[in-house]
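ugh ok fine here u go
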Amino acid sequence: MVNAGSTSLKLRVVDGEDRIGETVDSNPVGDSLEEDLDRFLASAGPLDAVGHRIVHGGPRFTRPVVVDAGVRTQLDEMNDLAPLHNPPALAALDALRRLLPQVPAVTCFDTAFHSSLKPAASRYALPTAWVENWHLRRYGFHGLSCTWSVGRAAELLERPAGSVRLVICHLGGGASVTATAGGRSVDTTMGFTPTEGLVMATRSGDVDPAAIAWLAARGVAPNELTDGLELRSGLLALSGGLTGDMRDLLRYRQRGDQEATLAVDVYVHRLRAKIAAMTAATDGTDAVVFTAGVGENESEIRADACQHLEWMGVSLDAKANRAVGSDDVDISEVGARVRTLVIHAREELVVAAECRAVLNS
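structure:
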């Protein structure tokens, strides 16, 4: 599995038993992408297929697909929808197709999981001409992570996946909350791009669009607006430029730093509101799931997010919450009407399963 981001490269070898073999997590500096991949392949062994995580599939790609010349051309058309995410993923795709020309490449899309959204959840209240000409809609992201969480949550709850309603909080550098029912996405916080929704490490989340138009009218250039919203906002901005890393912010908060405290408070306030909103989307929920870097590792954020959600049936076992390790666990208080689960993201296993499905179809 290849997961190439704007500043990172994650590589995994997954065998037929879903065991993880050779693994690389890097932030390459100085080396070329092909050199990094070549070193990995030298120890990876023979491969039957290469699965690529692609963040944005646009309106065209709603399921995994084997890459051929036509598909590769169409993928370029999605770059302006996710300019920070898709281009590096396609660069890795091209490099591996050169290095492994006989090995099938399969693209797996984060947006595909949300193609089931009904118009009430996906449609923007914008002029029809804009919507139709530019394919403006709420696409949603983190779909591969959500797919894994749906299956694992059903196992932890000992119920069929199709019978479970979930609120999935994928909290990493990028963050989203998704409501699922019947194993499908019903609503989600990210929209046309991964910037909508929650406060994130360096992304703003929800902002009044008229404020952006106001800035543009006063001479702020489009590229500066994009850079500000994507790279200089979020926790980084709220902390006064201190950091966008939640681990550091929690340490600074413990020391009494006011800007770090504000950053965490705003983050949790928005998160709690979105959890409640996603619960409404499915007429209640059976479990709240925390996943990805912050969701899996920061007990303080889980506790703060669930505080004051007792009205919807959420209640944490404080000791279990603090004791979360490498296993997927239920951290609910005994008798809680809504369960709270911590599930470790395993997107590589979802990509592997999707590769097998499309190649065997």
